[in-house]
Design brief:
Layout lengths: L3 E6 L2 E9 L2 E6 L11 E2 L2 H16 L9
Antiparallel strand pairs: 1-2, 2-3, 3-4
């Protein structure tokens, strides 16, 4: 039996995490995190953490971020 968990960040639904042989596959529903679609994570919390990083990166104004 598969289990799924919604992945939301700040009330924005980004996708779902679905069990896959003891791990969690992320299925993106929001284009901002489409690069994560199909990635496998150890837990839904880890998928949410990474999705949050991607969302925050996409939300930054151009020229605001990155390490020099």
């Amino acid at each position: 039996m598969q289990t799924s968990r919604p992945i939301e960040v700040h009330g924005r639904f980004l996708g779902i995490a679905v069990t896959l042989a003891g791990a969690w596959r992320f299925i993106a529903t929001d284009p901002v995190v489409e690069d994560l679609d199909g990635n496998v994570f150890a837990t839904p919390a880890e998928a949410q953490r990474v999705a949050s990083l991607v969302l925050n990166r996409a939300s930054r104004p151009a020229g605001q971020g990155g390490v020099r």
